[in-house]
């Protein structure tokens, strides 16, 4: 068996990005220079970072689908995402983000 030669990698990748891991967050933060991508405020401690799913798919945590936001900008996104989140397992992810 070969684990490297082509095949069904698409579904594997989806699984891989189902959870917003620490390394994904790092990638997004480094790309945005640890700033909010809406208002450009520096993200540190109490004001973030929070992550918005650009295409609205909460299980699509590819860095290209994520934006780092401060707590104020995320307020608007949170409403949108929590509405969708009732159907999925996003609550686990949000729980980690909010640290509650
Ligand atoms: Zn902001």
* SS element count, helices: 4
Structural class by secondary-structure content: mainly alpha
How far is it from the N-terminal to the C-terminal residue, by CA?
A: 44 Å
CATH architecture classification: 3-Layer(aba) Sandwich
Number of domains: 1
**CATH topology (level 3) name:** His-Me finger endonuclease fold
| Run of helices and strands | HHEEHH
In short:
This protein has 100 residues and is mainly α. The protein has helices spanning 9-16, 22-31, 71-85, 90-98; strands spanning 50-53, 66-69.
What is this structure's SSE topology?
Layout (H helix, E strand, L loop, with lengths): L8 H8 L5 H10 L18 E4 L12 E4 L1 H15 L4 H9 L2
Antiparallel strand pairs: 1-2
Annotation keywords:
disordered C terminus; 100 residues; mainly alpha; binds zinc ion; two-stranded antiparallel ribbon; globular
Protein architecture, described:
The protein contains four helices and two strands, in the order ααββαα. The protein is mainly alpha-helical and about 100 residues long. It has a two-stranded antiparallel ribbon. The structure holds zinc ion.
